[in-house]
Write a structure and sequence with these properties.
With 533 residues, the protein is α+β, with helices and mostly antiparallel strands. It is 37% helix and 30% strand. It has an eight-stranded antiparallel sheet with strand order 11-10-14-15-16-17-18-19. Strands 2, 3, 4, 5, 6, 7 and 9 form a seven-stranded mixed sheet that branches. It has a two-stranded antiparallel ribbon with strand order 1-8.
Amino acid sequence: MKQGLLTSITLLFCLISFAQSADLDKENFKVSYVKLPTKPILDDTKRTYSTNHRGISISGFSKVKSEGTLDYNYTFNGTEIGEVNINKNKIEKKDKEGKVISVSYEYMVVVTYSSSASLSFNNAETAENFQKTYSESTTYKSSTFGSYNKAKDYYNNNRHNLRNKYRTAHKNTIISNINSYANRAYGYIPYTTEYEYLWILGSKKHPEFQKHHEAFDKVKASFDKIKYDEPIDEIKKEMEPIIEYFNSVIPNYPGDKRKIRKVRYASYYNIANLYYYLEMPEKVKEYAQKIIDNNYDKKDGKYFIKKAEQLIKSLETNKTNTRHMKVLTEDLSNVPEEEEEKEETTDIELNKAYLITKENDTTLVDIKSSDIASIGYKLKTVEYDQNGTPIGSRVKSAKKCKELVFVDGLHYRNIKFKESSIKSGAVDAGQMVLGGATDKLCKVLFESDKINLYLFNESEMVILPAGSEKGKSTMAAGFVFGFKKNLTKYAEGCPTVIEKVANKEYKNNQESLLKFCNELTKCSSSATTQDGN
């Protein structure tokens, strides 16, 4: 009897000891399904749409020439140019005593471009119809010039290109907004991501470590087979023993110690998440409540309840019990390609820029506005014949380019980094020296003697501390999950910024990271000035 009691007490202490090493890691797996619409056309034979603009597209629908169930009539109303101002800025240079020793002036062109469009919509199935006006506005600020006349001449020489640039950008934004709404309301959108995750024990000392990882490996292998347009019945069967395992862990860790509740939380979370992607929302709600009752991270329980209720509503609205289905998107409009091209034809917009190569050769080049968005791995410039007539394009690899400085101030620089989309094993031996980092042209967002921030492919920011050989993608897992740790390291020597990092005053987005870079640089400059005094 005493021996049995002693064994139980020893076991309990072992469990508590192991629970103290219950570190959890996010382990990613793939999910794939169809995002269902909020206003579905339930009869799939009626899933047709017509439009007078080729950029409007609805996933899961057939485009017809006229009289579609959904009809979109789009009109672009044009781009207006606001008042052109040339702002004058006084620059004073002072000595250590604060005495002004020189005065100079710089001039900047400031002008606002505003575009508008209108859309009329009709749903023949429900008789719903509306008219909506869209508007976009951008205030352009040029780089600075040493005289008023230079600023004025620059604007006069580039005003048509500037207007065309913002007209095109505004058109694209408006059409994108129309498509986003149309697809949320009516579209069936295939969706795949590899960034869903389970909480898996990260400490090898924990008795469940091995089984946790074995369970995750089976989850990953099963979900890798999932396709948005195929049933998941077989996947559900494969997940039954996995869910049973996570359930079996729970009673082995009784008590209210935080790290014991953490182990139970991992099981509850993983089961709830698996049930969500197995399309069993009532079970999701059941385990979401267990997360709340477990009192380790209640907000995740509330989050799962919200997701489950949204899924229930979406399935009911669409009269289905699954988000896995065939999606047919086709163009039956038979509109001749020349006719569509004629509608969209505009003058080719060229942008002048200085290209600086790795050999420090500088060349003035012309770049089409349509090619600016693709600057990254390569640079495409306009090639002319001896008479100055455009005859094609010349493509230069990013690894041969050092900098690209547009006349209007847009600036690209060659940065070595590994983008987050690269999979393991995709890097050749020559790249391994820099850990998979390769040369890419990135838009300059911020540069100082302390920290630099760039934008790659208009979507991925890259942070580069001064003196570093390669940058780091802010979308990389190591940066995302170690966000505070990374910023703290970059802010070494600046306690005010480190304190803000600790208080979570910075977020992983462009606006917030620009704020971080500005404040870190000012902190560095202030410290330098104080040291100098």
